[in-house]
Amino acid sequence: MAGAGGRSVRILCAAAVTLGLAACTTPGGRQSSDVTSSPGRAPTGSASTPREPDPGDERSRPVRIALAGDVHFEGALARRLDEPDTALGPAAAALAAADLAIVNLETSVGTGGRPEPGKRFTFSASPAAFAALAAAGIDVASMANNHALDLSRARLPSTLRAARSAADADPPLSVVGIGRDADEAFRPDLTDVRGTLVATLAASLADQDPTADATGHWAAGAGRSGIADAIEPARLLAEVRRADRDADVVVTYLHWGVQGERCPSVDQRSMAARLVEAGADVVVGTHAHRLQGDGHLGRGYVAYGLGNFAWYSPGPTGVLTLTVQPPPRPSGRATVVDAEWWPAAIGADGLPAPVGTTAAADFRAQREVLRACAGLTR
Q1: What homologous superfamily is domain 4-374 in, according to CATH?
Q2: What are all long-range contacts of 118-121, with beta carbons under 8 Å and residues at least 24 apart?
Q3: Among 61-70, 327-336, 344-353, which is the least confidently predicted range?
Q4: What is the tens place of the pLDDT at every residue in 56-71?
Q5: Who wins on pLDDT, 237 or 20?
Q6: Per-residue model confidence (pLDDT) at position 310
Q7: Does the structure show a pLDDT above 70 at 197?
């Protein structure tokens, strides 16, 4: 977990300025001199300054990034928030073991508001959801999805206040993909792992799914709060290019694809290729509620569907941990040198738990099948 044991720290604003980044007060960041608990983001419109080599850092060491899928606190999971420190149970060990852990928080968070009219499924959680994620070893949560505003825009100010509080908490949690305007919603989290700067961006393309509720009106804009919506992808691609200039490793977490499908859509495959070309080293996503293939795509690594993770319906799940070799400075691309799943299954309690030997072997076999239909390589 970022900040645990000194393994990694969030970039404080003063350091961000030296990288050519502007001030970093965001839903998941604050201006502070406390480097161990100060998340930072690279604002839109900032200049890009090449990073100079530092012979004294440890950036030659690989970075381990843990990735998991959709989390909410509905059904049996709702009462887990009464004790947020243990809310995600046995999954915490697999997440906290990495240098950086990222999930999708697929629920409205905060107080007030009312269910969005005409929406088939509406999810809601108290601000304790942020504390539960942080306690489980999660460093970054995406809220760029089709459930973040389930309790309408009336709740959104509460959501953003809770996200800022989560960034200041101990342990901290950075929330991406949502904000007071488009600049803030698309702004990446920046985490320094032993001298390697990792940028995490999030965006939603869920409106491309004809089976899902249309949530395009939730898009953040100029002076309009909401989520990072990338149905028109120009902004997302520009942010990835900017992050590639400013950071060593770029992770893009998307909400995309078609619900129930195990193979990625044509749109997913096209967008993944464009993101890798723009500079994304890792492209991952959720929304299908099924596991989809993961593997190398050109110079990047793609996991099209991470599935559900803490959810009210049982099924296969897991944590994908990528070992990423930082690029040589002052230029170059990071490389995923290993990808390992912690195979698990969601039980009746909504929590992921490790599976036995036979089920783990089946998981590995299915992974090969899914990689093939996704057009990815080992």
Answers
A1: Metallo-dependent phosphatases (3.60.21.10)
A2: 118/213, 119/150, 119/213, 120/213, 121/147, 121/150, 121/213
A3: 327-336
A4: 556 679 999 999 999 9
A5: 237
A6: 97
A7: yes
CA-based angle 333:335:338, to the nearest 5?
170
Task: Give the CA dihedral 295, 298, 299, 301, nearest 10 degrees.
Answer: -20
Token look-up 């809310």 returns: 87
pLDDT above 70: residue 274: yes
Contact 338, 63 (CB under 8 A): no
Q: In the structure encoding, which two tokens stand for residue 66, read together? A: 């843990």
Amino acid identity at 25: T
pTM higher than the cut 0.85: yes
pLDDT digits (tens, 9 = 90+) for 8-30: 566 643 334 334 443 344 454 33
Orientation angle between helical segments 156-168 and 128-135, nearest 10 degrees? 30
